[in-house]
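Help! Submission page says 'invalid entity' but I think these are all valid:
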Amino acid sequence: MFDLETKELQISPFLVFFIINAVQVGIGVLGFQRVIMKSAGNDSWMVVLAAGMMVSFIIWLMYLLLNRHQKDIVQIQKDIFGKWVGSFISLIWIIYWLLIGIVTLRNYIEIVEVWMFPTINIYMFSLIFIILVYYCVSGGFRVVTGLSFLGVCIPFYLFFTFLFPIEFAHFRNLLPIWNHSIKDITFSIKDMIIGYLGFSTLLMYYPYIKHPKKSQKWAHLGNLLTMVIYLFILIITIGFFSEKQVSRQIWATLSLWKIVEMPFVERFEYIGITSWALIILPNICLSVWASTKGIQKIFNLKPKRVVIVILSILFCVTVAVQGREDIALLSKTMSLIGLCLGFIYVPLLTLISFLLSKMRRGKFEKGT
Amino acid sequence: MRRVPNFLILCLTMLLFLSGCMNIKARVLDDIQLATAAGYEYIDEDKIELTAVFPNFQPDKSVKNETLVASSILSKEVRDKLSLQSEKPLVSGKLEVTLYEKKTAERGIKDLLDTLERDPSVGSNVYLAVVDGSPKELLNKQYGNMDNGIFLSNLIEQNIESGLIHKTNLHQFSYKYYAEGIDPMLPIIEQKNGKINLKAIGLFDEDKLVDQIEEKMYFYLKILLNRKGENDTHAIQLGEKTKLSIFNISSKRKYHIPKPMTNSEITVKVKLKSMIREYNDGELTDRKIKELEKAFEEDIKRNSEEMIKQFQEKEIDPLGIGEEVRSRTRNWNKEKWEEIYPDIKISVQVTMDIIQSGIVE
Amino acid sequence: MRIWRNKKKLDKNEKDPKKDDSFQVLLQQLSESDEFTQFTYASRSSTLCIGYYTSLIDTEILHRDIMPYLKELEVITSLPNVIPIEEVTLEKDTTIIQDQLLRGHVIIFDVNNLNQMGLAKASVERTRQVAIPEVEFSVVGPKEAFVESLDTNINLVRKRLPLPELIIKELHIGKISKTRVSVLYIEGIANKENVNTVIQRLSELQVDQINDSSYLTQLIQDNQNSPFPQLIDTERPDRIASVLGEGKVAILVDGAPHGLIGPTTFFEFFSAFEDYFLNWTVASFFRLVRFFAVLFSILVTPIYVAVLTYHYELIPKDMLSTLITSRSAIPLPPIMEALVLELTIELLREAGARLPTKVGQTIGIVGGIVIGTASVEAGLTSNVLLIIVALGALASFTTPVYQMGNTIRLIRFPFLLMAHYIGLLGVAISFCFLLIHLLRLSSLGRPFLEPFYPLRVQDLKDSLIRLPFSKQTKRPILEQTEDTMRFDPMKAKEKNDI
């Protein structure tokens, strides 16, 4: 099941659209508003746009790097930094991807605890989730992609339910534009980018894409969809809540759903949380898959054992982290590593790769 | 070989479930008491008396209301005390209406709202209302064959839908409470001879009830409150004999603020399209209609401006004029606005267009 | 594993006597069965011995077409020229002789010359007539269904596809049953890979008996532990003819009134063949209805249990009194209530299925009306749940493929249990599990959830909806056909009405 990237295991380039979107849209959508509106207020929509564009730029850089090497990040780093250093940096990537999985799962469990079942046995609950993840990941990358695809398509109906709060929205709240200084806005961009993280798994599944060069536009479109989703929810949030009210809502998106009333169902947030299981599952699966693949590439181990080890770590950390502060700390660590890797290391690596290839070519020319 | 572990996993999962240690408390619908309405009243300095109503559905489809009363210093704690009196655990997930006694509302209801906002099981669609009189008494009565909470919520909902009062619920109240430049309003109800009457609209400064406007002013409040409206009805008497009633097909309200955050005049432009519902002074000619339009414009202008004056005097802003100004100024300063607000001249311009006069001339 | 090992030992024992290829031994062995008739007949030049299984041959053929001509027989080698039957052969190999005798041949040999035996086919086909399809009945369209005879079935298909390219490969499967299994495909349309997969899986089968095509479904499908069938079985020759044209491979089994089709997709199980007889708008509507019926049938009872057990907040205020009143007198928790009712429905179905039609109907009425009403009145179940469960059961019966309908009814139970344990989240988790399972499935190596995943827009036009025939110019991508075009769309557009 974890074979070389033969044709049968590869996926069509357009599916990258769904993978990128599935891994970005996760737990962040439920409560990103409070953080970014703290400093950017009603101008937050600009933050979402700016962050989206920056991420798009990084995706472009990644493709620059990957298209040149036609390999995954583990191999690229081995080529550039040698076996030991390269593998070490790959390990950091793997830890980061694993952290994405942990943070997503732990935050989801927290939401379930707070909103639905305060006394839920989180050992049991995360175990069930991990069994699901194992079942998915052991099916190989095709199944993970398939779940990402369905995880984007099936819960899409949820976004229509955000039209209900419009009845109570005051869209004048969006005015005046540029109410906040550029400094405030830039400051929030950092917080907003967390909502976009996870796209770096691209570095790992690149060899699994058929005609990978063609997939670049799909990756950008996937990112665009994420941006549109964030923007859509944010604009409704700004209209629906007053600024101080948002600052009190830890999960503003869920609070939006509280107003939804349909003839057959009320209190849509419960359905939202439930449906969100299908949104976060591909998220976790993809990050677990990426870290499994990475470990397996570095140490040449049997995939099945690696999955089990990775999932055990996932399980242990998830149940060990208790309380809101710890979860917040974990999320912060994850986003810090993500920011450093994505926005500092990836450009650097692209640059090094570019320089190295120039140097090698120069040497080659000199030699002849 | 690959299938064996999957099968094992399946067995394992089943085992897990059969052991049933998910540790979730079941709240089976018929084993809980659904509180549908709650009334709050301060009985002394810091003790709250909470009256909870829950329906008791009888097998013959009739509903009997039962109330529980308890008092404590924290409202959640009151709920625990209520549970002591109840045969089934009391839950607040289906709360439809919360009522506040008038004196309590005058003291401020922020602390009482906190429990509603914090509890994930309470929806945003809960209606809030102020009671002139004792909420305990109001909730103790039986109104038709219906649960009191649902009855009250239907009463308020019906009046919102038919355009008599503004939209109001828990979310709207806390929106206006937290927003800068707008103050909340809540309907005031009273109980008389076993009937409930929507008596007035209570005006809040932050979370304290400070004033109220009577039923005849609802119309002016509504057309000024919403950017777009419809469904309002209004009747006036012109001179001695002419009485007429109109129905609003659409109303549009626009603010004209030339220099925000200064003392310069703010103009509210209102455009109405109406039809005549009742008229008792002979034939309606085109000229007559023109005259009526004029008279109406006069009436609305005079009353609205008077109402706004009243708001300015009390330093409250239920119409959200501050919000209009805020969305027109960068780096809005709330304190400064509150300082200048009472002295700003606010005028209302009305354009009335009677486009239809029913099926008779 | 142990069972298999034992079987292998048995095989060895069986083979031992065969090694002794003397013909006398064979005759001895055959005549041990009382049904084997053997007699001598003196022809003009020699003494002939004639033997056959009485039950397998048509005595009329024997007496009309074989016996009268034997008198003229000079030497046994001229037998094929003398007897006016197509299938007359000369054989030496005792295994083949034995095999042919068991397939209704008559053995004729010279008592003095045991080197050559003549075999003449006089088999009798005792099958029922081609009848009206019962499982896949349709109001309009052809009313022929397969029967138990392979030759008749192939005839029914070939009649619809008069093509030399329609290839039929015959295999014999089963240690004891030696069942004839035919693989049908159209050369030049069907992908060779699919055909080879089927033939390879069939020929590698280690099994003693094949009594029906459903044995094969279970034995050769990609994931044999999945409750979902991965090959469609059908009793309609027209359906087989139609899907052969799409590039699928069909399998017909002797003795089975159902053929198998593969590769297939999940959504194809919800298309009745009748859909092709109706206008595309109507057909699409019916397909959507069927698919929603499936979702409804899987989800509705679990959602009821979840909401009533954990999520009372979700119930709108106008529905509260109905639900509470209906449940107020019931002592059982929602899960027990639902399980009892679901099991009752399953019992009714089982009872109805095992009994003759008339009695079955009565059972249905007694069960549905009497038990239903009585249990509501006795306060054992709530009437709301009764409606929900009945509707769910009704919905599960709309699935056109019987095997899939069974699966749908089965997978409701894990959903129910999960709903009881973790409420709506349990339903969501079960749903995720179901999705992953479906994603992992494949049918003859082709993805099972196609055309949704992998998304193939071209195949969507015959999945949950069915677009008009004129739009279906290309064969589905699923089968990776060699000839992708059904017909030339340009020519189709050229048609002129007079």
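Support: the input was valid. A stray whitespace character was the problem, and the output above is from the cleaned input. The longest strand of chain C covers residues 113-121.
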